[in-house]
Amino acid sequence: MAQARLSMQQIVRQRRRAAFVGRTAERDLFRASLVEPGMGSRHFLFHVHGPAGVGKSMLLAEFEHIARECGALTAYVDESAAGIPEALEAICRQFASQGRRAKDLERLLTAHRERRHEAELAALAALEPGPDSGPSAGSMAVARAGLAGLGLVPGAGAFAGVLDPTHLAQGADRLRTGLGARFRSYEDVQLVLSPESVLTPVLVNEIRGAAADVPWIVLLFDTYERTGLFLDAWLWDLMTSDRHGTLPGTVLVVTAGRNPADSARWGGLPGFVTPLPLRPFTEAEARGLLADRGVRAEPVVAEVLRLTGGLPVLVSLLADSRPAGPEDVRDPSATAVERFLKGEQDPVRRAAAIAGALPRRLDADVFRVAADLDGERADELYGWVSTLPFADPLGGRLRYHDVVRAPMLRLQRGRSPRGWAADQRRLADAFRRWREETETGRETGRPWADEDWWELRTAELYHRLCARDREALSEVLHDLVEACDQGEAVAARWVGVLEDAGRDADVAGIASWGRQLSRALAAGGTQAVLEELLVTAGHAPSATPWTGGPYGPPQGPPADVTSRRTEERPHGGYGYPGPGAVERPDTSWQAEEQLREHADWDVGLPPALMARIHRDRALSHAARGEYEAAVTTLDRALGPAPDDAGALALRGEYGRVLGRHEQAAGDLERAVALDPADAYAWASLGATRLALGDPAAALTALDRALELRPDYPWALIRRGRVRRVLGDPGRRLADLDRAVALQPDSPWAHCERGDALRATGRDEEALAAYDHALTLDPEYASAYASRGVSRFNLGRHTEALADLDRALELDPSYTWARTQRDAVVRHRDG
User: Fold this and answer.
1) At what angle do helices 195-211 and 224-240 cross, to 10 degrees?
2) Which of 43, 49, 37 is nearest to 271 (CA)?
3) Which own/partner pairs from 262-268 qualify as long-range (CB within 8 Å, at least 24 positions apart)?
4) Model's pTM, two decimal places?
5) What confidence tens digit (pLDDT) does each residue in 715-756 have?
6) Cβ pair 438, 447 in contact under 8 A
7) Which of 128, 227, 504, 705 is deepest in the core (most CB within 10 A)?
8) d(CA 346, CA 352)
C-alpha cells in the first residue's frame, strides 16, 4: 500500500520539532504529568511565562506534540480569538480535525453568531432618530454606560460613547422593543448578553464525553498577556467551581504569556498551578542548539553567546547563518536584519521583508502599502514573506516576531529618518481611508461595536504617532476616554497604541504616556485611567480612590439617602453597584526625570472632555451611594465647563439626596434653563420643590418632565406624592397605576401604589400591592411597615404587629414604623 503523503504543514511541523532543543526539564515535567500520578502530585494548569523571543510558543507547540504522542485530544488557542466564543470555536475546529466533533457546542456557537448579528441589527435600528418625544427613565440609566442596563448587548453598548446621551437613551427604548421581537427564548437572550454562561456548560459536557474515549484532554492558550484579559477569570471559574459542571480529572490546561500568573486569583491554590518561567538558554542549552546546527568552533560559539545573551530566537538565527568565524558574528541588536535575511540575495525581496516590519499586523492589503507596491508583484512578494520563519500566522494575517521586527524598525529609522516618517504617514493614510470606509452610511458616529473598526483606528493612530504627528496624541487620549466606556479590554487597545508607538518609534514622551496609563489600567481599571488623564493631561488634583469603571446616569433621580424606601437606595437598589475602591498605587515612578521624558508631548484635555470624565467619576461614586464624593467631583466637572447642563442636573440631584435643597434647586433651575428638554432635571427639580414645601411648583416641574418623557416611572411616582399633598387621590392612584405598568419589577412603585390604595380605604388591594413589593425585595422595611398598618385596619392585629416588628428589625431608626407599632400595642392592650 502506498504510504500516505504528508501535507506541507505536517512537513514544516516535523522540521521545526526536529530542530527543537533545550527545555529538557520543562518537557520532562509535562510528559510526566500525562501518566496516572497520585492526586497529591497531579498537575492541572501549567503557566509558561517569559519575555518575547524566549521560546514560549515553540514550547507550547512541543507540549502539544508530546500530548498527542500520549493519545491526548488537544486544542491550541492564541490571540486570534477575541473572546470566549471565538476561543470555543477554535477548540471545536481542532477537536474536529482530530476526529472528535463537538456537535452541541458547534450548534450553539452558530446560534450565538446569529443572535449577535440580530442584536447588532436591532442596535443600529434603535440608534436611528425616532419619532418619540423622549427616552424612558430606564434608558437614562444606560446612556453613558454603553447600554449596561441591557447587559452590554454586543453591537449596542459600544455606541454609547459617541452619541448624545438623550439620543442614545431614546435608542435604548427602541432597542428593548426590537430585541424583544427578535429573540425567541431566554437562551437566545443569554447567548447575546452572557454567551459564556450558555456555552461553557455545553463545553464541559463535550469534554466529559470525549474523556470517555481519550486518556487526556489538553487545552493550550498562547499569548496570554492578551487572551488572559477575557480567559483568566473564565478559566478560574471553569476549573475551580462546579457552576458549569465538573471537569474530568484528565483535563490539563497550559497557558503561556509574558507575565506570571495572577497571584490574586491563582495564588490561593498551591500545587494547582505549576509556573514554568522561561529564561534565556543556559550556556549548555545554547551550545547544544549551536552544535545541532553544526556550529562548534569555540570562538564562534563564544561570540554568539556573548551577543545573544542566550535568547533562543537569536541563538537559532545566528546558528542558521553558519558563521565561519567570530568576525562573522555581528551584534544582532544592530545587524540582526542582515542575519534574518542573509540567505536572500534579491534586493526587492529584502526590501519587501524589511518594509513588512512597519505594521504591527500584516495582510496582503497592508503589505502593498508598506512596501509601496501594487499588482501581481506585490501579491507574489507577500506570498514569499508569508513563508519567512519569523512571520507568524495570526488569524489569517502575519505578525513578525518581536525579536526580528525590532531591529528591522531600528534599521529603517536610522537609515532614513525622513523616509521612515513618510512610510509611516503613508500607512496612516491608508488605515484612515479603510476606517472611513467602515463608517460609510453610518449616522451613529464611530462604530465602537465593530472590532474591525478598532483595528483600523488604532493602526491609523499608531502610524501617526510613529511619524511624530503631535496631533495624534490628543486624538489617542480623546479616543481612550471613549474606549473606557467599553471596558478594560477595549481601553487596553488604545493604551497599547501608546506603548507600541513609543517603543517602536523610540519616542520617549509617547512611551512615558504608555507606561503611565498602562500602570493605571492594571492598578485600578478604566476609572484609574480616567483619573490619570485628569491628573496628567488635565492638570487636575488627584482626589478620590480609583474604581473599576465608569457608570451610566441613574434611572431617574435616586432619592433621599435617609429614607427607608427601596427607591431611595442608590439607583432604586437595582442599578449599577460599583466595585469597591482600590488603593491608589505608588506614584513614585512619576519622578521628575520621567515627567521630563514626555514634556515635549504634554497634552491638555479639552474642557468638555475633562468635564465628561468628571461626570463619569461622579456617576461611579453615586452608584455606590457616595454622594458627597459625587458632588465634589461634579464641582470639578463644572470648573472647566460651568454651563454643562448635564453636570448641573446631576449635582442638583445629588444635593437633593443630601438634603441641600436650596442649593439643589439653584443647580436644577439653571440646568433646565440651559437645557429645557432635560426631563431628568425637571423631575429632580419637582422633587426638590416638594421638599422645600412648594407642591404647586413641584407639580409644574413634574408635569413638564412627563410632557418630555411620558413613560418616566420615577417622575410618575414623585408626582403621585405631590398629588397626595394636594389632596388629589384619584390622580395620584392613576399616576401610580401607570408607573407600575411601566416598571412592574419596581418594589417602590408597588409599595407607593399600596399606600395610595390604603389612603382610600382599599386595604385588601393594598395588601396585594405590598405582598408584590416584598416578593421583589424581601428586605423592604417600608413595605413591611405599610402592610402592618393595612393589616391593622383590617383587624389582623397579630400579623400587623409582626410586620411592624420586622420593619424595625430591618431599620431600628424607622420612626414612622415605631409610631404605628405603638398604636397597635395600645389598641391591643387598651
Assistant:
1) 70
2) 43
3) 262/228, 262/232, 265/232, 265/233, 265/236, 266/45, 266/47, 266/236
4) 0.51
5) 999 999 999 999 999 999 999 999 999 999 999 999 999 999
6) yes
7) 705
8) 10
